[in-house]
C-alpha cells in the first residue's frame, strides 16, 4: 500500500475516533454547564425554613418555676440534662502565656435545630472548635448542657445550652472574677425579645423581634393571622442586614416567595441603599429581578 494511502487511512481513523469521543463528551459538558436559576420559581424547597408560628416560644415565670421543681424531684443522673444523655468534652488552646479551656457537653441523639433561632452552637469534631452557624450533623454535635470557659484557670463565662441554643442565665467575668455581664435566654431567644400577638390568649403570634441590650439582634419573623410565615429577616446591632424575604399567604405548608429586599451585607455599611432584588406572583413565577 502506498505511503500516502496509509497516512490518509490513519488520519481518517483518528478523525472518526475524535468524532465519537466528542459525541460522548459534549452531552456531559452540557449537563455540567446547565445551571438552574434559583429565581425561576418562588416556591421554597428548604425544609429548614419555618412554615408557621412556633408552638412553644417563651414560658412564663410560673412555668419555669414548675419545671425547676420537677427537675429537683427527679433523681440526678450524671451527664443527663433536660432528659437527654450527653457527652462531656473539652477544648484547650494556648497563646503566649494564656491558656484557654472550654468545658461543654454535646448530644448526638437529637440533631434537629430550631429554624427560628439564628445562633445554633455546635462542636465541629473535624476542626475541634465550637461554631454558631451552618450546623452539619455529619461534622459534629449540638451543644447541650452546662458550658464553662476558663482563662488561666479563672472562670470567665458560664451558661447552659439547650439543643444548640443558649438557655437560662449566662454570666461573664473578667480576669479577677468580677461580673461583667448577665443575660437570660429561653431556648435561644433573649429574655427581652419583643413578641406581639393577634390573640394573646390563644398565643396567635404576629411578630417575633429578638432584642439584646435594647437593640434588635437575630432573626425577625412576621406571621399571617393563620400562623403562616409572612416575613423573614435578620437584625445585627439594630440594623437590617442581608436578604429579607416576604411570602404570599397560601394554603397548606407550601411557601411561595413574594418579594426579596436586599439590605446592607454588614451593619453600618455606608452609602448602601436597600433595593428590591426579585418579585414573584402568587403561582411562584418570577416577574422581576434586579441583580444589583
What is the radius of gyration computed over CA atoms, rounded to a whole number of angstroms?
A: 27 Å
SSE arrangement, N to C: HHEEEEEEEEEEEEEEEEEEEEEE
What does the average pLDDT come to?
A: 83
Task: Please estimate the helix content.
Answer: 10-25%
Strand fraction band? 35-45%
Distance between the termini: 67 Å
- Give me the number of helical elements: 2
Basic shape: globular
Structural features:
10-stranded antiparallel sheet, 22 strands, 15% helix, alpha+beta, 2 domains, single chain, 8-stranded antiparallel sheet, 292 residues
Describe the protein.
The protein has 292 residues and is α+β, with helices and mostly antiparallel strands. The chain has two domains: 58-190, no CATH class; 192-292. Helix content is 15%, strand content 42%. It has helices at 3-33, 61-73, and strands at residues 80-81, 84-85, 87-95, 98-107, 122-124, 129-131, 140-143, 145-151, 154-162, 165-173, 179-186, 189-190, 194-199, 204-209, 211-212, 215-216, 218-223, 229-236, 239-247, 257-262, 275-280, 286-289. A hairpin with a 4-residue loop joins strand 13 and strand 14. The N and C termini lie far apart (67 Å). The model is unreliable at 25-33 (pLDDT under 50).
